[in-house]
Amino acid sequence: MIRQELSTSYQEVRARHYRRAVPALPPDQLLFLTPAVLFLLEGPKPWSSPPLDPVPEAVRESWGMKLGQGRARRWVSLDSESASSSIRFSKACLKNVFSVLLIFIYLLLMAVAVFLVYQTIMDFREKLKHPVMSVSYKEVERYDAPGIALYPGQAQLLSCKHYYEVIPPLRSPGQPGDVNCTTQRVSYMDPFSSQTLKSALIVQGPREVQKRELVFLQFRLNQSSEDFSAIDYLLFSSFQEFLQSPDRAGFMQACESAYSSWKFSGGFRTWVKMSLVETKEDGREAVEFRQETSVVNYIDQRPAAEKSAQLFFVVFEWKDPFIQKVQDIITANPWNTIALLCGAFLALFKAAEFAKLSVKWMIKIRRRYLKRRGQATNHIS
């Protein structure tokens, strides 16, 4: 009984000490009171030595303010950590979005490079199949004397002369005149009809193109059973080659097979302006003559008795000092194609490498973000 009374009285005294010593603190701040602080706040126990002085009110208020500030700092630190984690998350999201966009861009570039490679190969094949004709001009001081093959038939050569620039007026038309040209006669079998013998008069053509050299020929046909009268002729590239050929008949057969033939009619003066074209195609070289022809009517002033004989006049002259060269050109340069293909394949390789590195970087960033989020969750918990 005595022991119970003593304990009851001690508890009442201690309760009065707490009410007097401990200030009115909120319940959540009482949790931070340590035993030392409680000892100072309690004051002296009943059985202890002389009682200590009670804790001043200002000290107790400063302790309460410090406890509140510590709790506020902890909440502020937690808020700052959550804000920094959200900022890191937004940056990581932006980086991932940009990485995905870059990957799509490089995939698009890879598709374009593949299309360019395919288109380049197809264009190269088409250009190989269809070469382009290139035309160039070469200026010369003088030409090699061309050969003029005439097939007069029953017509007679009256005159042949070389003039420069101007032909003088006719003195005695229809009468034999001077033959100042180098001529040769040759007979050969027609290459298109082996039963026909042809006789050709080969005349050396003009050479001095700068001096406007020309060859003027005059023929006469006394009688003809045909309704229309004309003399055939053809042009070949070199009269000197004809003279040096051991088989002139075979040479003329080859020329007639390779070159075209033309005609000039009686009663007119036919002016032929020649131009030379050299053609190179599929590794074969060929020479072709092109001509411009102008026809002028001849005013026959002979006596009526001589008009029964028909006269033929023809003039051969070079048109200009330019030789036209025509050759096939393949516009598809293989080196350009190879360079373009190398560039396309290099772009493909670089794009694939960048895509691979971008994927690795995204995986690394994702792992780092998950690791940081796990650490933040553990710290908060």
Automatic annotation (TrEMBL):
UniProt-listed Pfam families: TMEM206 (PF15122)
Subcellular location: Cell membrane
Domain of life: Eukaryota
Residue intervals passing through the bilayer: 97-118
Protein's membrane topology: Multi-pass membrane protein
Organism name: Muntiacus muntjak
Function: Chloride channel gated by pH that facilitates the entry of chloride ions into cells upon exposure to extracellular acidic pH. Involved in acidosis-induced cell death by mediating chloride influx and subsequent cell swelling.
UniProt keywords, alphabetically: Cell membrane, Chloride, Chloride channel, Ion channel, Ion transport, Membrane, Transmembrane, Transmembrane helix, Transport
GO cellular-component term (any): plasma membrane
GO molecular function, one term: chloride channel activity
Catalytic reaction equation(s): chloride(in) = chloride(out)
PANTHER family in the cross-refs: PROTON-ACTIVATED CHLORIDE CHANNEL, TRANSMEMBRANE PROTEIN 206
Family according to the record: Belongs to the proton-activated chloride channel family.
Protein name: Proton-activated chloride channel
InterPro entries per the UniProt record, alphabetical: TMEM206 (IPR029366)
Stretches of the chain forming a coiled coil according to its record: none
